[in-house]
């Protein structure tokens, strides 16, 4: 049997107005007050005015308008009708509609028998007992269905809350994981970019250092060469001056020695011999001068050759040092370029991995969106089914309300007819009341019942007095049989 949500029926019943405005019945006292009357004279006189306590006579036989059931009773009747209809609908909800037999119209007042009050009361009692039994069964079944439906709704609500909570936690975890992944990716990307920048900066620095080193080597070589050239020139100049000085000193000494020899020879020889000796001395002087010049030129050439060899050796050493420095700088530059290339390759690899992860994330998001869409479609379908079921229940409630209004209208007609009959009988009894009086036998006594404990108690007494509580009034006697 399908479960139907009836939680909102009471609120719908209380909000909607009933078809016919039926006033609420006023509460009447269950114990009618007996009017005081005079006691009739002995042997005749007027009829006593005292009324019997068990019979309630109404002075106005017309009375007020018909007072039907209250709103709560109408709501209960509507719930009973709706429970019966729901039970039938739950059984035959999926079955095809069968042709129904023609139902008897409850508003057909011609079929209502109001011949006597006893027959009508007996029929009403039987009908009410049968209706009460069915209503009890329907109420129990409806209460069970309501409890089961309430439990199912509670479980469904709890399940939805758990699913919602789990989905929220899952989304939160996914968001946190995505945030961490994005943070890690950004950190790795920043590290790769930093490494790439460092590699590029290192390569640029290596190139600059290589260029600076080359320039510094060139400058240092030029400065060293200039310094050596200057020193060499100074040294050559010093040596030349020294040779000139020595040669001049030697020439002077030799000239002094020759002069002494000439003077001695001139003293000893004649004029021709002196001329020959002078010519020989001049030739020897020229020859010595030539030899000295040649020797000096050879010395200068030998000195120049040695200096050139030393310069070549220094230049070769400088070239070797420069080559080693350039090779070292080239190695550093190649290492920096290799690191920069590796950093670029790492950046490209990271970029490819990010693109792959992005594609996977987009695919996963598309799958989740498709699942959410399917879930929303199922939820919308279920909601439409619940709305359709609610519309069916509302239609059933309207039908039950209409049937209850018909029943109330038929009861109202029946009650009006019965009231007319009762008024007729009441007026007949009031006409007979003047001749047939109804009195209650009673006995008068001057004695009163007084508790003995009050006057048999010793005085004075230390005990605390207790409150006096009179004996309750005895119940009224049943009315005499007519």
TrEMBL record:
Residues 101-111, 123-207, 219-280, 287-356 have a biased composition (Basic and acidic residues). Signal peptide: none annotated. Residues 33-42, 463-472 have a biased composition (Basic residues). Residues 1-72, 86-356, 459-482 are annotated as: Disordered. Residues 8-21 have a biased composition (Polar residues). Residues 473-482 have a biased composition (Pro residues). This is Uncharacterized protein. It comes from Strongylocentrotus purpuratus (Purple sea urchin).
